[in-house]
Amino acid sequence: MENMSTNTVKVGDILVGGGFPVSVQTMWKTPLTPEKKSFLSEIKNLKGLGCDIIRFSVPDTDSAVYLGAIAKESPIPIVADIHFDYRIALECIKLGIQKIRINPGNIGALWKVEEVIKAASDNDVPLRVGVNGGSLPTALRDMEDRAAAMILAAEMEMEPLERLGFKNVVFSLKSSDIKATVEANTVFSEKYDYPLHLGVTEAGPMIPGVVKSTIVLQNLLKRGIGDTIRVSLSDTPASEVITGIEILKASGIKKDGVSIVSCPRCGRASFDTHSFTKKIESVLYRKKKSLSVAVMGCIVNGPGEARHADLGITGSGDTVVIFKKGKIIHKTTTDMAEKIFVEELEKL
Ligand code: SF4
């Protein structure tokens, strides 16, 4: 993989760019409330799955205050997503939120954008400046070349940052158009040394969203383009994190964690691999060691795959057989399988 080096931006304790590991982000899906305990509990859960950074929409100053309280105790850095009102960005910076995402195009007068840049600079808070193919400046909306339009929009947003000498910035150029997203990020990475936040905007529900995101992210990441990723899905933050991690693993960028082989199940299955895999998924993604796990429905391919994994399980008639490093260690019932398998997983 080519090493396309960029500046490094520090988001809380996560380093973005400069050859540091590609971080995985997600976005919170509901409004902020004063009830911080449940937010912190779910953020902890997402961290366990492998989430590095989490972003929240902050539409008003009350939300900024709620997020400020969460950011103080969050186990991962928080990003405040601000549109329209620059004063909310200033409030979030004052409250110590670790990163601010703004769209200078909808903040209004240039002096308001400059106020945010100056406050970020004074408080050493990084910004993410985002170009979205669906909300380009009016002058660029009719351009046929969508990628070129996105680059021009990014350069317009870059002007006040460069003029004020503020380099603590991550850029993003997202579109729901796969080709335009790949081209825009490729050209941007050749011209500029800002780290890139990659993603396909409004990628859709689970299946189309995963397909589009995989095509775009794999294409860019394998060429060394991209420093942090977010898979946007009409699904849960946990699904976004797991998909992001799987894309990094399948692209050969992330080597640790569990590699899962599971059979699709057919009429021969004597063991329900679908529900079993779903049940143990959160335990699997919490393992940071490099391990292989096989979950198989019957004896056609089950013993072969299960034997080759660090830990394997397969249906075999009325029983369920568990393998560890190629050897049978348990013959049990479907009811007991989950408990025994998880215990063995924890021992590995
Ligand atoms: S392992 Fe058995 S249950 Fe699973 S797909 Fe193959 S034949 Fe079907």
Low-confidence stretches: none
- Give the count of structural domains: 2
Number of helices: 11
Mean pLDDT: 94
Silhouette: elongated
Return the CATH architecture of the largest domain: Alpha-Beta Barrel
Spatial extent as radius of gyration: 23 Å
The helical percent reads 40-55%
Query: How are strands sequenced across the largest beta sheet?
Result: 8-7-6-5-4-3-10-9
Q: What's the number of extended β-strand segments?
A: 15
Sheet/helix structural class = alpha/beta
The largest sheet, given as strand count, sense and whether it forms a barrel, is:
8 strands, parallel
Distance between the termini: 31 Å
- The CATH topology annotation of the largest domain reads as TIM Barrel
The H/E string reads EEEHEHEHEHEHEHEHEHEHEHEEEH
Distinct small molecules bound, one entry per kind? iron/sulfur cluster
Strand content: 15-25%
CATH class of the largest domain: Alpha Beta
Q: In the CATH hierarchy, what is the superfamily of the largest domain?
A: Dihydropteroate synthase-like
